[in-house]
Amino acid sequence: MATKILPFYQKKHKHYGYDYRSLDSRSLVKKYSSKSSSTKRSSSALETSSATFHSAKFSPCAKRVCQSVEDEAPDYTMPPFRSSEGEGEQVKPKARTFLYGTKLWEMEAEISRLRRSSREQMDMLALKRMEEERTAVQRHVREDSMCRAPEFLVRLRSHTVWENSFVKLFCTVQGFPSPLVRWYKDDVYIDQTSEPAKYRMDSYYGVHSLEINRCSPNDTAQYTALAFNIHGEATSNATVIVKRFRGDEEPYHSVLLPLSLPLLSPPVFTHIDIQYSEKFGVSFGTEGETLVLSCRMILTPNLGRLQPEAVWYRDDVEVKKSKWAAMYYNDCTATLTLPHLNKDDEGLYTLRLITRGGISQHSAYVFVRDADTPVVGAPGAPMDVTFYDANKDYVILTWKPPNVTKESPVIGYFVDRCEAGTDNWIQCNDAPIKICKYPVTGLFEGRSYIFHVRAVNKSGISRPSRVTDAVTALDPADFARLQSIYFDESRQIVISQDDLEGDVKPPGIPTNVHAAETSRNYIVLSWDPPEPRGRESLKYYIEKTMAGSTSWQRVNQEIAARSPRFAIFDLAEGKSYEFRVFAVNKFGMSQPSAPTGPILVQERIEIPSPPSDVRATRNTKHSVVVHWVASKSASELIGYYVDSCLVGTDDWQPCNHKPVKYTRFVVHGLKNGHKYSFRVKTVNALGVSEVSQESKPIIVQAALTAPSSPYGITLLDCTNNSMTLGWKIPRFTGGSDVTGYYMDHREVTDLHWHESNIKPITGRVYKIENLKEGSFYEFKVSAVNLGGIGIPSDSSRPFRCEAWTMPEPGPTYDLTFCEIRNNSLVIQWKAPIFTGSSPITGYTVDICEASSEEWKTVTEKAVSTRYLKVTKLEEGQSYIFRVHAVNAAGQGKPSEPSEPVLIQARPGTKEIAAGVDAEGNIYLNFECHEMTDASQFAWGKAYEEITDFSKVHIETEGEKSKLVFKHPDMSDLGTYSVAVSDTDGISSSYVLEKEELERLMTLSHEIKHPTIPLKNELSYEVFEKGQVRFWLQTEAVSPNATCKFIVNDMELTDSKEHKITFDKSTGVIEMVLEQFTSKSEGTYTIQIEDGKAKNQSSVVLIGDAFKAALAEAEFQRKEFLRKQGPHFAEYMHWHVTEDCEVELMCKVANTRKETVFGWYKDFVVVVPEEPPNPQTGDSKLCIPEFSKKDMGEYKMTLKDDKGQDITVLEVVGKVYEEIVQEMSKISGMSASELKIKCTPEGIRLQSFLKYYMEDMKVFWYHKESKIASSEKMRIGASNNQVWLQICEPTDQDKGKYTMEIFDGKTSYKRHLDLSGEVYAEAYTEFQRLKAAAFAEKNRGKVLGGLPDVVTIMEGKTLSLTSTVFGDPTPEVTWLKNDKDLELNDHHIATLEQGKYACLTIKGVTTEDSGKYSINVRNKYGGETIDVTVIVTRKLAKFCITVHKIDAAADLEMLKATDSKIGQTKDLS
User: Fold this and answer.
1) Dihedral angle computed from the Cα positions of residues 774, 775, 780 and 781, in that order, rounded to the nearest 10 degrees
2) Which of 265, 484, 660, 696 gets the most CB atoms within 10 Å of its CB?
3) 1341-1375 as b/e, with b when 16 or more CB fall inside 10 Å?
4) What are phi and psi of 1366, to 5 degrees?
5) What would the pLDDT profile of 434-486 be if each residue is shown by its tens digit?
6) Range in 162-171, 574-583, 678-687, 924-933 the model is least confident about
7) How far apart are CA 272 and CA 855, in angstroms?
8) pLDDT single digits (tens) 839-862
9) 1020-1023 long-range contacts, Cβ below 8 Å, gap at least 24?
10) What is the pLDDT of residue 857?
11) CA distances from 1355 to 327, 1407, 1434 (A)
12) Distances (CA, A) of 1029 to 548, 1018, 1021, 1071
């Protein structure tokens, strides 16, 4: 039987078969027919029944049948759609075409014939069966016409559907009288009038249905059909589940697989709908990179045990899993990974998803560019290296040449081989071979090899190609001579044909010697082994001779061939040769084979001719389809290369990097709106042909197609019998302007659409009349252009036809968006058609995030314009908008919500630019590179299209459009916008403000009224002799330029008093006044004229300006006279050296030996350390350790018989301050970091610097607080040091200390953190020093009174008296010769008042001579003072006394000394 066409909801979801009605009906009929005996029909009766079959009508349950209208039971009349003829038309399968060759066509034709024959037989059987069933049913109706309660013959079925689709629930009910059916949703009665467009209920001949339109998740519920009559009621339930799907495209329905055998009925497969949510597109990669192609899909139903098989193809060849390609399928995602791209990977990739019900596939092209070459200018790598005719001795390789555009042509190739498992590559050919085929010899039998190829040109060698698969050097004929004899299921015996031939000793003669391959470089010779060949291994030797000669020469003298094929090199091109072969084994050599005929050494193929008739046609915004006529002479064609070039350049770029064999290629990756030319080259084994002729230039634009569907159908006004509708323009016009629209409408209860208009609607608002009041209508719109009628829009929501009488305005319409940037956009709309009871006063705009349902008002107050710029939006977020119109009655109906708008600026977005052209016209310019033939620039002011061209005109050329102002004035201020149609919303705006317009108008005036541009305005300068030069300089002027010099309205001419010159090459005009006097006051003007261009410039020398110029002229005149004698070239100035020494410097000139120099300070002669340098004229006076005492007036004089000069510098006031500041700068920069020095008084912080003087500004800070000098904090300094003495430090003195030296501009700071361990160590050292000082101060000591040596005569009394000090009072001990002195009457020691110690020696003798010591000591320490006593004997006549001792006088003297010491002590 024919395949039945399933309804939409059964195609997408898992349901029971649609033919359940006929199955249940047949089972019911069989139940009734079993009650009566069946009767046999004759063939004539069968013909009669079949003849009347088409006029019979059957109910859906096949329960009641009648042949004529008079006999019909009205409650059980079968509708026409169940007739056999209608069914035949409905189930007629759509013709399918499979391009699989002639045999497959014949098989399909045979299958179709068998199906038709089977269908005819089954139809005849069905007719017979139906006639029997009809007779049985009629008999049952007559016998059993009794009242019955409702009974469901076919119950409701549950459904699972997608959101926004529709579902239809069916049930079949019988009963008498005919039962009525009511529908319930979750036990709530469904009122069709409440939502007439939502539900539709039908009842035909006992078959009841409920259709739910535009299903939403809220429609997920349990639905109940309640059938009732006077005898009872019955119910049937079904569950409807609505799933939400967020994809962008409709499912791609699969196609049935071709059948290879005739079937009586089609097999029932589980239908799986495949919809791609993510698809790989055209991809670009570079050799060596990794590329991933993936497709994500949605399966309906998604059954774990029935997942599709994902198979990848490249150029219709299946991609196998290898190290070059990895593919996997998991979680509805198919992925192909190419880990290391080569040009071999370029091609059309196709993913085929195979299910038991069909195939779904997606394709896209992958382009692989050449990687960077190791040598600049080297060619790309060859590709598709393959091998064939592998033998024990050699293998033949073939490859495809690279595409060369800017590089030099390929001159040959190098072939490299490597034994598998190693990394040792060996070059096989010494010289480059020029053909893309090469027999590699020198292989070892049984070993495996891999190969790659490199291309060569004059610049260098390319990167190697992708390596081949491993090939083993074996003769395939050896395997053909093996035979297997199976002994049982697990064992077999393998024997060789050699074993069956017996012992053949000398080999036979090889036969069939011929040339298998010929080239200008080599010939591949092939032959058949001798028969029989024997068990022993064979080798072969080949001999050659020139055609016509009998002199044979052995070709392979050293290495014998082991296979019946051999490549012969070193042949002379263009010569003919003959060959013969010898077979050899261990028993001997065979006779030579019959020689071949003459074989000419030449290429069998030629370099192909280029293609012709290259044409390019539009495809998409970034691609072009290139067609060409195939090359007329292209033997062994490999393919074609396509190159592209941007018009206006000579930069040819390869479009494909792997040859294509067809004569049509889609070039991707082009720039939209740019113009390209194309050329094609033919490729065969010999290389690449010359380039073809270039195609005609073509602009990359989308091809002309029908427009997309309009959208946003909105009801704008409504009366009792008409509706006014509006809609939005299609997003894409298909490459040409939309010329009109067609609208269809229908009532929601009607299945058929009706045309609303015959002629195309030119606008986007249309009024439909002659509608039924109170009815609900749906509408859809189609757009039309030169490409045809586009697909219709989605049907609108149902609108009820009833008059609008509300006072509020109707909805706005035609919401459009432009100038979409990263955080803003501009929304525009049109005023409502229905304004309500009062005029419209404004509009409000609402916004809602696409993922939310919360609406917010953008505008606080209603706006009067019909556009609004919405800002502060989130980049990457999608928003929905709607607009309300407002009048005196309030806010009107909202517009239809807009489509979601993504807030993201388009890449390469351009803005409107304002400027002035060469003619002085003010313009606004906009440029767009993504235009199509249908694209147009639409300029507007305040977002209203400009229709009044009295003040502006528009100039459009190619991709640029310019709005030019004719007579610009302040009325032209405002917002100007431009939009480009058919470009997916490219637009921009420009706010022309007053300041900008004034600037543009000024620039325009300058261009329209040209002036000679001046490099320099008129100015003056004073020469050294007091002359004054007036001059200006213009830009380039012509030789015809003229000028006038006007002073106080009087034109001056060239003369001795005022010399005037005009250098036209440089544009310099000058006038030199020889005598500039008090009469020269006035206005000086130069007027210039060069053709139409004019200009003038003036300088005013009146009042103070003139006095300044006159003073400068007189000064220069005096200076000139002064410089005639000795003078100062540089007047005296000061300089501070790095050592902080001040130097007063000046420079003298025009001096002689007789010149007298003099330095003075305050009129006092000062002699410098060095005299002036006669060569340089430098003279200086050095002031070391500069201070206030050096302030004063410094003067230097020059004098000789030619004249005299003087220079004066007053080092006071500001000059003195500047010197101090400079010294402060040097000292501040040289200041060392703060260091700690502990003293008995406290902790001292000090810094060393180059020099310090009292006028330097040095400040100290503690914790950012300034420190003033006090008893606690003493601030001091010396010549090279500044310090801060912290007396008696405490914990409050901890913290950060800063020393600052300020030079008037910059502060130089040094810091020290006196806290923590630093403070602890310093404080400990201070305590130690303090204790040591205290001990030193209070220890026992001798203050004075004792001489070093005392000389005394015998018999005298010696008194040694001294003042001692100590707190507490020290102990005094006297010693003699370092031993304690024993006190007695002779030695008496006293201590008065605790501080006057005295040692008295009465009646000294010579024994008292010696060293006496006084030791004064208390608990803090003490000291010992020594006195040498010399006792002399009395002389007879005289006595020499060295020291006269008077004890009383000495004591008084000591007291006086002690009192002075006490005063000193008090002072300290």
Assistant:
1) -50
2) 660
3) bbbebbeeebbbebebebbbbbbbbbeeebebbbb
4) 170, 145
5) 889 888 988 888 889 999 999 999 999 999 999 999 998 887 777 666 666 66
6) 924-933
7) 40
8) 999 999 999 998 888 999 998 889
9) 1020/1084, 1020/1099, 1020/1101, 1020/1109, 1022/1076, 1022/1109, 1022/1112, 1022/1113, 1022/1116, 1023/1072, 1023/1116
10) 92
11) 136, 11, 9
12) 106, 10, 5, 6
Q: Can you tell me the mean pLDDT for 930-937?
A: 78
The token pair at 895 is 């517009």
Which band of pLDDT confidence, cut at 50, 70 and 90, is reported for residue 278?
Answer: confident
pLDDT of residue 245: 58
Crossing angle between the packed helical segments 43-53 and 102-143, to the nearest 10 degrees: 100
Q: How far is CA 413 from CA 129, 151, 383, 398, 983, in A?
A: 79, 87, 12, 11, 49
The DSSP output letter for 1320 is H
Selection from 598, 581, 563 nearest residue 510 by Cα: 581
Among all chains, which residue has been given the structure tokens 């529908």? Answer: 183
Residue 586 identity (one-letter amino acid): K
Token digits for 1109? 């110029």
pLDDT digits (tens, 9 = 90+) for 311-343: 999 998 999 999 999 999 988 899 999 999 999
Tell me: the pLDDT tens digits for 671-725?
Answer: 888 899 999 999 998 889 999 999 999 998 888 888 889 988 999 999 999 999 9
In SS3 terms, 890-925 reads as EEEEECCCCCCEECCCCCCCCCCEEEECCCCCEEEE
Amino acid code (one letter) for 1342: V
- By CB atoms closer than 10 A (0-12, 13-18, 19+), residue 174 is buried
| Owner of token pair 């007579």 | 967
Both structure tokens of 669: 């990756």
Which of 1028, 1018, 1049, 1017 has its CA nearest to residue 1109?
A: 1028
Distance of CA 1324 to the CA centre of its chain: 65
Q: Report the candidate in 324, 342, 338 with the shortest Cα–Cα distance to residue 286.
A: 342
What's residue 1460's pLDDT? 38
Q: What does the pLDDT look like over 1342-1386, one tens digit per residue?
A: 888 788 898 988 888 888 888 888 888 888 888 888 888 888 888
Distance CA 360, CA 254 (A): 5
**DSSP 8-class letter at 1250:** S
What's the Cα-to-Cα distance from 141 to each of 63, 64, 135, rounded to whole Å?
9, 7, 10
